[in-house]
Amino acid sequence: MIVKSYLAWMAVFDGIPPLSPILKEVPFVWIAFCLVEYFASKRKTLYYLIVNLLLTGLFFAVIMYYKYYGVIVTYHALQQVNQVTAVSNSVFSLLDPYYLLIFIDIVIIGFYLIRRARRSKRQPIMFQMPRRTSRGLVSTVFVFALAVCLLNTWPNRASMNEIKKAEAMGILNYEAYTVLASQKEKLVDPNQITQDTIDKLKGTTGLENPVYFGQAKGKNLIIIQMESLQNFLVNLKIDGQEITPNLNKLVSESLYFPHFYQMVGQGNTSDAEFVVNTSFYIPPNEAATQNYPDKQLPSLPKLLQQNNYDTATFHTNIVEFWNRGELYKALGWNRYYDQKFYGTEDSVFFGPVDEVLYKKTLPELQKMDAADKPFYSQVISMTAHHPFTIPHELDKIQLPERYQDTMVGDYLRAQNYADWALGQFIQGLKDSGIWDNSVIMLYGDHQGLPKYSLSSKEMDLMKEIYGHDYGNIDMINIPFIVSVPDVEPQVIDHVGGEVDILPTAANLLGIPLDNHIHFGQDILNQTYNLLPERYYLPSGSFLNDKALFMPGVWYNDGEQMPLAEDGVSQALTTEDEYNRALKLLQLSDSYVKQLPDRTDK
């Protein structure tokens, strides 16, 4: 168990103090083994193996979860278990073979005991424990180990940063603490949650004549959500080859926001759908689709329906994945299209490739466009999904040898194909006349290359691309592109996040949000932004217009990362912003949790 503790710490934490895993993990192991000594009078060796397997499985889960999300897994992630088989490719891609050595003792001892049992005519040795341990010794060890665990846990319970908290407590103590210390969240009275309160916390200033208000009044709205699309792909060339030529062309013809950031959590793509269509923040621990689908959610589809819009969402996966069917009902879409509509031809990962998505979606949009009312549709791409191992027959480029057989290279291949398919869709929209009568918004749903899962070679490739070490800001930076009829292309440096898409769309379509609670802001008109971040970054992290802040135990020992490469590293964020960001999260959680339940549930 000592060896396994060191393996888990090396995979998750930086700069491990030599004795920390022993001092912080072994006492918890002693407690578990003492309980075996207390309560198992027979088959004791079997129970030792079971406890070993459970603790080993927990360490293994911590390693694998951290490799993708960059957070310490807790019991909340049990809600994800039914999704694991669907994302098995992603799970196996994160698995370094040596991680499986964590189970080697269980395999060897189990094999040995079974073999001995078969050879023996006596009671199987695996069910025997010939030596009896002194109860007094067991009690002494138990009390001592419990005291050490409490000393590791109690003084560190106030830390905001979950990684630092787990390191200070020990992984096993942290897991136990999250279960035992779980308490009901204190909710704010919904009558106190007003748009004026939210705007003051965000630092938003009201404008009498906002720019672009009603610029696209009565136009269609098409929102394209691109799988795992990160901002560094814009105008990226590898040895002279453009990776996303269609995206680059769209950027040159549109409003482009290079400082735009993901705001998703455990639900990834489905969380992006939730945030974009509600302008609320994700819940603290689980996916939005597992927390909020029973609620009557104020949403962009409902808002536009009130303004005589038809609405539909398009996704080639099955609607049951991530409980999307219930989410779509809560959001109020008129219709959804899933794998039942698209079929299973040319499937990669979860469903048909993007080419099929766009080819079969376009005629439906043409039908909607031919009706006597405008429409809002959200089109969700999927082919460039982690781990990005699309069949080579889909390749449209040949990457240099140094990118071959790496996750970075596979990512670039997948995004190049997704870009090619997007180009076909854009051309179809233009040829059909829909493009000129629509606002087109395009963004990446979430990061594609978690820095925690990249090898040293792959991190070197990312450094080659960026010109600096690949960091947290780079990882969560996604593009946001808006094409509006009769609006000149422009690069807008305002900071924004997915929560801002709803109010930005409402401004362009000339729809007031006077009676619609929202936590985003129209980033066409606001230069300052305060964006609380969750899940992929420690609790208490936030972005403003200058920097990303990540807390330590609290604000004072946190880290500020300038958004601009030449930014000064001091006085970029304030403790007041930190407290306001936390308050915004509390207000969003409180508001959504106290919404009326759906009557059609």
From TrEMBL:
The keyword Kinase does not apply. It comes from the Bacteria. Residues 219-511 form the Sulfatase N-terminal domain. Keywords: Cell membrane, Membrane, Transmembrane, Transmembrane helix. InterPro entries: Alkaline_phosphatase_core_sf, LtaS-like, OpgB/LTA_synthase_biosynth, Sulfatase_N. Pathway: Cell wall biogenesis; lipoteichoic acid biosynthesis. Its main location: membrane. It is found in: Cell membrane. CDD domains: LTA_synthase. The chain crosses the membrane at residues 46-66, 98-115, 136-154. It is a multi-pass membrane protein. Belongs to the LTA synthase family. PANTHER family: LIPOTEICHOIC ACID SYNTHASE (PTHR47371), PHOSPHOGLYCEROL TRANSFERASE I (PTHR47371:SF3). This is Sulfatase N-terminal domain-containing protein. It comes from Paenibacillus physcomitrellae. The lineage of its organism: Bacteria, Bacillati, Bacillota, Bacilli, Bacillales.
